[in-house]
Write a structure and sequence with these properties.
It is built from 20 helices and twelve strands. By secondary structure, it is of the alpha+beta class. Among the domains are: 65 residues, no CATH class; 295 residues, no CATH class. Strands 1, 2, 6, 7 and 8 form a five-stranded antiparallel β-sheet that branches. A three-stranded antiparallel β-sheet has the order 3-5-4. Helix 11 packs parallel to helix 19. The longest helix is centred in the C-terminal third of the chain and has 40 residues. It is extended, with a radius of gyration of 36 Å.
C-alpha cells in the first residue's frame, strides 16, 4: 500500500541552511524535493567523484582478493580504475597478436637483414601457400623454390627470382612483416603484464570496504548539496524556502524535533497536486515483490499499489511455467545457496521455489515424470492432483485460461474501484458498465455451467446485466457530453474491448505452453538417458550425465521463461485492464533509505 505523506514547507535564514539540512539528514525521514542531476560546479564534481568510486567497486566485484593487501598512497579508486584501463588495453591487443602469430607461424623465424641483402643483389622472395596434394613435383626443378613448412593440408614455400616480370601459377601472398618468434615473445610479455595487473587488482580488492565508505561519504555530501541548492531563495537571499515530505506516521516525532529548532515550518496533509514521493508499505511476503513493481514504476500518490496483486499472480504464473515439483526443489536449494551473496533476491527465489513445488505436485510432475504412474503414491493423494483432461481438454490448459479470466476480472474490479475513488461514482458509470458486463457475465456463466442456477433464472439475470451495462457503456459514459457522442464512443470502445479482451485471455495460454515445453524437453532427456542406460554397467555413467546436464539446461531455460512471461502478463494484461500508470517518484529521504 502507498504510505500517507505529510508535506512540510520550511522557511529559515540562509545562514542556517547547512546546519538544518545536516540535522534532517541525521533524522533520515524527510524527502526534500530536489534535483537528481548535477546543477552546478560543486554537484558536478561530487557526481563525477561518485562515478569513479562506483566504477571501481563494479570492477572489483568479481575479483578474488589476494592474501595480502597492496599498500596504497592516494586515491584507491583512481588506482583501481587506472589498473583496470591498463588491463583492458592489454587485453584488447592480445587477439590481434594471436591472429598475427597464427598467420606468421608457417613462415617460422627469419632474419630481416638477410632478406634485405638479397634485395640489394637484385633477388626478390615470393611467398606462396598451396595444398600439399596439389604441389607440382616439377616446380623445384623449374624455379628456385624452397619449402618452409607444412601446416595441416597446406605447404608454405618461397620462390626466389631475379626479374621484375616473374610469374608463378599461384597467387602470391603478402610478405610477412614480422618474425613469428618476435610476435610470440610479445604475446608472452602481454600475458605476463595482464597477470601482473590482475594480481594488482586482487591486492586492491582488499581496500574495497574503504572505497565503499568513501563513496557513501561522497553520496551523502552530494545528496545534502542537491537539497541545499534546491531551496528557493527569498527576501533578497536572507531567507530560504524548502519543500519536503515525510510519512504521516513520523509527523509527531518530527514536529517535536522541529519545534526545538529556530525554524518556521508548515505541515499539511500531502495532496496529489503536490506530487509527493511514494513509499510502499507492505508485509514481509508482499515486500519481496516490490522490486518487480519498481521495474515498471511506482504508483502515483493516488493510485493503488499493485504489489499485492503481483505477489500472488506472478508467483502463481511462475509456478505454472515451471510446473515441476523437482525443479521447484532445485530452485529452493539454489536460492538458499545464494542467500549471502544476494540477500534481497534469495528469499524471493525460495518463495517461487515453494510455489513451483506445490503447483508441480498439483500437476503431478517431478523431473518430467508423471507422478500418477508412481505406485508409491496412494490413490487418496492422487485424487487431489489435477486431472489430465477437463471437459475433453488438457487440464493445465483449461486451468491457465480460468486463471487468466480471473486475473483480468480482478483488474477490471480494481479499475472500477480506483475510478470511483478518484472521479466519483457518477463519472465512472461507463467503467461500471464494462465491469458489470464482463465480471458479472463471467460469474453468472460460471454458476450456470456448474448447475447452481437453472436456465430461466440465468436468462433473466443476463438480460438485466445487459440492460444495466448498456446504459453505462452507451448512454452514461460521460454525463457532460452529448448523448449521441456517448453512443458513438460506446460503440468504438465496444469494438476495442471485444477484440482486446479476446487477445488478453488467449495470452494466458503461454502459461500452459511454457510448462508443456519444459515438461516435454525434460521427458526427451529422460528418454535419451534411458536409451544410453541399456542393460546398466557403464551405461549408468552416460545416463547420469545426460539426465543431469539435460535437466540443468532445461531448468535454466524454464527459469528464464518463467520470469519474463509472467512479468509480461502482469505488466501488460493486468496493468492495461486495471488502468495502472506507475508514474510516481520514489521516496528518497535525506540520510535514510527508501
Amino acid at each position: 500500500m502507498v504510505t500517507e505523506m505529510t508535506r512540510y514547507d520550511f522557511i529559515l535564514m540562509h545562514r542556517d541552511v547547512d546546519a538544518f539540512l545536516e540535522q534532517l539528514q541525521e533524522v533520515g525521514v524527510v524527502d526534500i524535493t530536489r534535483s537528481t542531476k548535477p546543477v552546478d560546479e560543486r554537484s558536478e564534481k561530487l557526481s563525477s567523484q561518485a562515478g569513479v568510486y562506483r566504477r571501481a567497486l563494479s570492477a572489483l566485484k568479481d575479483v578474488v582478493p589476494a592474501e595480502t593487501a597492496k599498500a596504497v598512497s592516494g586515491n584507491v579508486a583512481s588506482q583501481v580504475m587506472e589498473t583496470v584501463n591498463e588491463c583492458e588495453s592489454l587485453r584488447a591487443k592480445l587477439p590481434q597478436l594471436l591472429k598475427d602469430a597464427e598467420e606468421l607461424k608457417p613462415w617460422g623465424q627469419f632474419d630481416k637483414d638477410s632478406t634485405a641483402r638479397l634485395r640489394e643483389r637484385g633477388l626478390k622472395l615470393h611467398y606462396y601457400k598451396c595444398k600439399t596434394s596439389a604441389m607440382d613435383p616439377d616446380w623445384p626443378s623449374q624455379y628456385a623454390l624452397s619449402e618452409i613448412s607444412t601446416e595441416g593440408a597446406y605447404t608454405y614455400f618461397v620462390v626466389v627470382s631475379d626479374t621484375e616480370d616473374f610469374e608463378f601459377p599461384l597467387k602470391e601472398l603478402p610478405a610477412p612483416d614480422r618474425d613469428y618468434v618476435a610476435v610470440e615473445q610479445e604475446i608472452t610479455a602481454v600475458e605476463a603484464a595482464i597477470k601482473e595487473k590482475e594480481q594488482l587488482l586482487a591486492e586492491l580488492k582488499c581496500h574495497e570496504s574503504e572505497i565503499q565508505s568513501a563513496l557513501d561519504k561522497i553520496v551523502s555530501k552530494l545528496d545534502l548539496h542537491l537539497a541545499e541548492v534546491s531551496g528557493e531563495r527569498a527576501a533578497e537571499d536572507y531567507l530560504t524556502v524548502f519543500e519536503g515530505f515525510a510519512p504521516a506516521s513520523k509527523e509527531e516525532a518530527l514536529r517535536e524535533l522541529l519545534d526545538k529548532e529556530d525554524v518556521f515550518y508548515l505541515a499539511n496533509k500531502a495532496q496529489v497536486e503536490d506530487n509527493p514521493p511514494v513509499k510502499l508499505k507492505n508485509n514481509k511476503f508482499v515486500s519481496m515483490f516490490e522490486l518487480l513493481t519498481d521495474m515498471y514504476g511506482r504508483p502515483k500518490y493516488d493510485e493503488f499499489d499493485p504489489t499485492v496483486f503481483i505477489s500472488i499472480f506472478f508467483m502463481l504464473f511462475f509456478a505454472f511455467c515451471m510446473g515441476d515439483a523437482g525443479y521447484g526443489l532445485v530452485l529452493i536449494l539454489l536460492s538458499l545457496g545464494l542467500k549471502k551473496k544476494m540477500p534481497k533476491i534469495a528469499p524471493l527465489g525460495v518463495t517461487l521455489g515453494i510455489a513451483t513445488t506445490v503447483v508441480g505436485l498439483l500437476f503431478h510432475t517431478f523431473f518430467s515424470t508423471d507422478m500418477l504412474t508412481w505406485s508409491i503414491i496412494p490413490d487418496s493423494v492422487k485424487r487431489f492432483m489435477l486431472p489430465s483432461q477437463i471437459a475433453g481438454f488438457d487440464g493445465t490448459m483449461v486451468l491457465a485460461i480460468i486463471v487468466g479470466i480471473v486475473h483480468i476480472c480482478l483488474a477490471m474490479i480494481v479499475k472500477t474501484y480506483q475510478s470511483t475513488k478518484t472521479k466519483g461514482f457518477a463519472n465512472s458509470l461507463g467503467t461500471w458498465g464494462w465491469t458489470l458486463l464482463i465480471v458479472g457475465g463471467v460469474i453468472v456463466g460460471g454458476l450456470a455451467l456448474m448447475g447452481v442456477m437453472d436456465k430461466a433464472v440465468t436468462k433473466w439475470i443476463i438480460i438485466g446485466i445487459g440492460v444495466l451495462s448498456a446504459l453505462g457503456i452507451f448512454f452514461l459514459n460521460d454525463l457532460h457530453r452529448n448523448p449521441l457522442l456517448n453512443v458513438g464512443s460506446g460503440l468504438w470502445e465496444t469494438y476495442n474491448t471485444a477484440t482486446g479482451l479476446l487477445g488478453d485471455v488467449l495470452s494466458y495460454l503461454r502459461l500452459y505452453a511454457l510448462g508443456l515445453a519444459g515438461a516435454k524437453l525434460g521427458e526427451a532427456f529422460n528418454a535419451i538417458g534411458l536409451q544410453a542406460l541399456g542393460d546398466g554397467g557403464v551405461g549408468w555413467v552416460f545416463f547420469i550425465l545426460i539426465v543431469v546436464i539435460g535437466h540443468v539446461l532445461n531448468i535454466a531455460m524454464c527459469i528464464l521463461g518463467a520470469f519474463v512471461h509472467p512479468l509480461r502478463l502482469n505488466f501488460l494484461e493486468f496493468f492495461k485492464n486495471s488502468g495502472y500508470e506507475g508514474s510516481g517518484r520514489n521516496y528518497h529521504p535525506l540520510g535514510g533509505e527508501n
